[in-house]
Specification:
heterodimer, A: about 550 residues, alpha+beta, 9-stranded mixed sheet, 6-stranded antiparallel β-barrel, about 25% strand, B: about 220 residues, alpha/beta, two-stranded antiparallel sheet, about 30% strand
């Protein structure tokens, strides 16, 4: 299994760092790898509610998190040093376990069968290097539990053929879709074409990201490992006394820890490929997991991984996915064959007892064992930081004080309670400012540089109701003013009554301005007639008639 | 009010030029509380000047804050934190926001007990921030309100809202005790704030006449 790639296949030698890559086995669970789970950090619904710990089941995310936790537990039974690449995808060095279980294909089949016992489909790919193994796993056709051992869910790239396998892959497999699109336009359809370019030219034309992708395409690791061992312990930890049973404070602490970790690494010009998250429970047990970092995870991203990892340990009764087990009935014999095989736990890989989900699952959505007593983040596989430009072209840099203030409020009220608005386009005033949770990428909901015919022109209103307020507009006779399908008014508006406020006389008005939006989408289609009304107290209102009802969308005061 | 050199930089946060004459030191005194009678464009205009000058701005308890209008007035949306619903722990939320933001616009969800107010004011004095309250705040150094407002441009079934002429009154305690009254275009046609020339007003100032403009057809011009 310890195949070496022939040196001749590497077009450009890059020095001692270009070691032949080890055989990597990747296990993917396509069902658990939904787009929602892909970035668990900020989309988990119960991240937003203030009382998370006590909150009940939080829907599919939590179920999937627990299921994934079980899958990882099963895989860990075959090889202790499992790295979670992203939710639904884990990887480990194939050499040792494959030898123990009688070959890579045999090992893969056993893993698929064991995971299928949980009711989860999985695919396995084996190749040299994580990137190629991931592609191999993706290329393996889906398995059904019945014929899992029948092995068409397994794709083993024979030793030495990884470069050839990579060469025929389309460039669109690269994570950087901008780069992939550019390469395609340049006529480079496959990774082989891309790999044939001289590395130096790639680096000068496409920068650091391009260089990484080029190394991947050539079957190398994306970045050479930093040769020097870290001069100091760069891990960061926080203790909770008393142990914290709720999720939000732990995740909040993880965010702060991640910032410290990043700062410590940055001070030494390093970044890490993986980050190890280790939570110690009040009863002394530990939950430890390696997460792929690649220097790309933000503090919030790391905190999201921590939440994910800890969520997997939480149980919520009555909220189980098929294949999930009731708490307590997961005796070791119930597990997949090979799970927790004692012989394959290499010393030094992990502390003993670090892996026991399920056994400790308590009830009621709280963390088991009385809560988290300590949280530790440790960088794994240090590499030189190539630098990530954070504030490019005038993006506002968030100072530490502001970030601290915002995160403290987020810790109190939830992630989505602190927003930063982004000005965009649209026909409604409400949709032209998109509130984005603090710490997330800021993008307008609708592009600002489109003409948006039908929008209200003139000065913007100072008051924009997030949900339009009910109102009544009547004519001189006291009848509700109606608008026909052809935009004929029944009478001129004379009075405006907004619940909770005294009725006002209308002193000036304009409209109706019809607006029919998104008729092609039954869910979002809206037909409205808009009015501007001025009332005798000097205010002005943006009112609409929709489905025969008057609504106040905004106020000009 | 003459500006003392150096004071406006350190002791006050800048405001939009049109609002300077309303405030005792031509700016928002750091560590002070200002109260506007209700939430509206005036509040947004008061924070916009500081934001345009580079300050971070927090807006708490006002889910209907019109960010677009505020941006038109000069607010930098990138340096704005919105906490639409601070909930029952709003004093802590505001204190946290004041740690990071130089100016916080707040509409308290409930009437603030005196103790809570005093604690927030102490926090404010320790820091260098400004709290602008939309609503009642008995200890406020400066109180502002819009007493008269007239929109132009809207007819009887035609036209559109163009600009609003507003009479703003400021009073308060200490150096703000003198009542100041200014006519402003709030907003102007392009969404900014400008001092209104009384002769430009779409109506006569003293008589509070109805909206249909009775501005004099002729007026004296200087020079």
């Amino acid at each position: 299994m310890s195949a070496r790639r022939p040196a001749a296949r590497r077009p450009v030698a890059r020095g001692p760092a270009d070691e032949p890559l080890p055989r990597i086995m990747v296990v993917t669970c396509p069902d658990l790898h939904s787009p929602d789970l892909h970035s668990p950090d900020l989309h988990s619904p119960d991240l937003h509610s203030p009382d998370l710990g006590g909150a009940g089941p939080s829907g599919p995310d939590l179920v999937a998190a627990r299921l994934l936790e079980q899958v990882i537990a099963v895989v860990t039974g075959f090889c202790p040093k499992v790295e979670v690449v992203e939710p639904g995808v884990c990887a480990f060095g194939a050499r040792g376990p494959a030898r123990y279980f009688g070959g890579e294909t045999a090992l893969a089949a056993r893993i698929i069968a064991a995971v299928a016992n949980l009711g989860v489909e999985s695919r396995v790919g084996v190749a040299e290097g994580l990137f190629a193994a991931l592609l191999a796993a993706r290329a393996a056709s889906p398995a059904s539990p019945a014929r899992a051992a029948g092995s068409n869910a397994i794709l083993v790239i024979p030793p030495g053929e990884t470069t050839g396998f990579l060469a025929v892959q389309p460039v669109s497999v690269l994570a950087d879709q901008d780069l992939a699109g550019l390469l395609k336009r340049l006529g480079l359809g496959t990774l082989g074409d891309f790999a044939a370019l001289p590395a130096r030219d790639v680096a000068s034309r496409f920068g650091d990201a391009g260089e990484c992708a080029h190394r991947l395409a050539r079957g190398l690791d994306s970045r050479p490992l930093a040769a020097l061992p870290p001069p100091a312990d760069l891990s960061v930890a926080q203790e909770f006394d008393p142990p914290e049973a709720r999720a939000e404070p732990v995740v909040f602490a993880a965010k702060a820890l991640a910032m410290r970790l990043h700062a410590g690494l940055a001070a030494r010009g390093l970044t890490c490929v993986r980050v190890q998250v280790r939570a110690t429970w009040a009863d002394g047990r530990e939950s430890s997991r390696l997460w792929r970092h690649d220097g790309l995870l933000s503090a919030a991203g790391v905190a999201g991984r921590v939440r994910w990892q800890l969520d997997g340990w939480r149980s919520a009764p009555g909220d189980r996915a098929p294949g999930d087990r009731a708490p307590g009935d997961r005796a070791p014999g119930d597990r997949a064959p090979g799970d927790r095989a004692p012989g394959d736990r290499a010393p030094g890989d992990r502390a003993p007892g670090d892996r026991a989900p399920g056994d400790g699952e308590a009830n009621a959505g709280q963390y088991p064992e009385g809560g988290v007593a300590a949280l530790r983040l440790a960088p794994d596989l240090l590499v030189r930081a190539a630098g990530q430009q954070l504030a490019l072209w005038g993006e506002t840099v968030v100072s530490d004080g502001v970030a601290r203030a915002a995160m403290r409020v987020q810790a109190m009220l939830g992630h989505e309670a602190v927003l930063r608005p982004v000005i965009g386009g649209g026909r409604d005033f409400a949709s032209r400012a998109t509130p984005t949770p603090f710490g997330e990428k800021r993008e307008p909901g609708l592009a600002a540089d489109r003409p948006w015919p039908g929008r209200v022109i003139g000065p913007a209103p100072g008051v924009v109701y997030p949900a339009a307020r009910e109102a009544e507009v009547t004519d001189d006779a006291g009848e509700i003013v109606t608008v026909s399908g052809r935009c004929d008014l029944s009478a001129a508006p004379a009075r405006l009554a907004v619940p909770g406020e005294p009725p006002r006389r209308v002193t000036g008005w304009a409209g109706p301005w019809p607006l029919s939006e998104r008729w092609w989408d039954p869910g979002a289609a809206r037909r409205r007639a808009r009015f501007q009304l001025a009332t005798d107290d000097g205010r002005a209102w943006l009112a609409v008639v929709q489905d025969g009802r008057w609504l106040i969308e905004a106020g000009y005061w | 009010m003459p500006e003392l050199p150096g004071v406006s930089g350190s002791g006050t946060l800048p405001v939009l030029p049109a609002l300077r004459e309303l405030l005792p030191r031509g700016g928002l005194a750091r560590g002070s509380v200002l109260a506007a009678a209700e939430f509206g464009l005036l509040c947004l205009a008061l924070v916009a000047g500081a934001s345009a000058d580079g300050a971070w701005c927090g807006i708490a308890g006002i889910p209907e804050a019109g960010v677009l209008a505020a941006a038109g007035l000069g607010l930098d949306a990138e340096r704005t934190l919105l906490v639409p619903d601070p909930g029952p722990a709003w004093p802590q939320v505001v204190a946290s926001l004041l740690d990071g933001c130089e100016i916080v616009l707040l509409r308290p969800p409930a009437r603030a007990p005196a103790q809570v107010r005093q604690r927030l004011e102490a926090t404010l004095r320790r820091g260098r921030g400004v709290l602008l309250v939309a609503g009642d705040w008995p200890g406020a150094q400066v109180r502002l309100r819009v007493v008269t407002r007239r929109w132009t441009g809207l007819g009887d079934g035609h036209g559109r809202l163009r600009a609003c002429c507003a009479e703003v009154v400021a009073d308060g305690r200490g150096e703000a005790a003198m009542t100041r009254t200014r006519w402003l275009w709030l907003p102007t046609e392009d969404g900014r704030v400008a001092v209104a020339d009384p002769l430009d007003l779409p109506f006569d100032i003293p008589a509070d006449l109805p909206f249909a403009g009775t501005a004099p057809a002729l007026r004296a011009v200087s020079g």
